[in-house]
User: Which sequence fits this backbone?
């Protein structure tokens, strides 16, 4: 049975890794060192802070989400508070790597506190990690070193703003690099778009939607063996629409067809399309079309 460990503070993660005490209670930059402790097998670890990590040459495997990933290339990993890592065998330390730990309290009075929640790559699975080039690595490392230097010197009234500024730069560039990664895999992504369309068609053509309800982000991701957030971002790049928008379009398409080609009541149609309450469906339909279901039916 796996051991479960919760790590709540930056000081605790430093003790866990067997590295020197952090110089700041809410943020730290850890360069990967030979005597770091990662030799805890069959252990699930979850953290109460953000993790941004670069790994260029680490052996062994870590399970995260539903997948096992081995780090043989330069990759960036992003983890939000509460996400779980499962260390399944003993990794060998990547001495060229670094990891930033950021406690949410550091961001509370900044714009990044809200903005960081919109970086969906914090919810990607490990097999959806960001692969970066040498040039991209140099760009990110400069911001990392800026944060490290700010932490190392005497803190003043500018320190927190500058640390957060560099953190935000790392996230903005990472988003750009992820967009590049999506584009370089565009051919494969188009296959996923087709698979997703088939999935939605099958889902809404089934007879038991009333029992299943509307498809969720997680269900859609699982159907294509990826995280829902990654699939949604992929769809947004390829089609201009997120998972939610695709689902909404499919609902309206099905609803319009049924309203024009059957005498089904609006109430029954709402249930058939997975809505728990008919009034939610009527409100949704009017928001999307400008007409209530009854008005739409009467116009045709």
Assistant:
């Amino acid at each position: 049975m796996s051991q479960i460990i919760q790590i709540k503070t930056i000081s605790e993660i430093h003790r866990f890794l067997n590295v020197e005490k952090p110089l700041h209670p809410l943020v730290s930059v850890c360069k990967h060192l030979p005597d770091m402790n990662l030799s805890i097998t069959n252990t699930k670890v979850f953290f109460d802070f953000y993790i941004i990590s670069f790994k260029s040459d680490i052996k062994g495997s870590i399970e995260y989400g539903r997948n096992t990933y081995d780090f043989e290339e330069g990759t960036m990993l992003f983890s939000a508070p509460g996400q779980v890592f499962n260390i399944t065998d003993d990794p060998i330390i990547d001495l060229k790597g670094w990891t930033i730990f950021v406690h949410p309290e550091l961001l509370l009075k900044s714009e990044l506190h809200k903005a960081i929640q919109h970086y969906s790559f914090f919810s990607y699975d490990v097999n959806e990690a960001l692969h970066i080039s040498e040039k991209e690595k140099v760009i990110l490392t400069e911001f990392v070193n800026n944060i490290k230097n700010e932490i190392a010197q005497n803190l003043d009234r500018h320190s927190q703003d500058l640390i957060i500024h560099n953190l935000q730069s790392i996230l903005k560039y990472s988003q750009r690099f992820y967009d590049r990664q999506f584009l370089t895999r565009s051919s494969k992504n188009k296959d996923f778009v087709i698979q997703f369309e088939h999935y939605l068609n099958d889902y809404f053509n089934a007879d038991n939607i009333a029992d299943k309800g509307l498809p969720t982000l997680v269900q859609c991701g699982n159907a294509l063996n990826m995280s829902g957030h990654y699939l949604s971002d992929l769809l947004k790049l390829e089609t201009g629409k997120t998972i939610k928008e695709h689902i909404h379009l499919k609902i309206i398409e099905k609803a319009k067809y049924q309203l024009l080609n059957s005498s089904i009541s609006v109430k029954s149609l709402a249930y058939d399309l997975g809505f728990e309450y008919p009034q939610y469906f009527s409100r949704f339909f009017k928001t999307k079309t400008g007409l209530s279901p009854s008005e739409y039916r009467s116009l045709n």
In short: The chain has two domains: 3-184, 187-298.
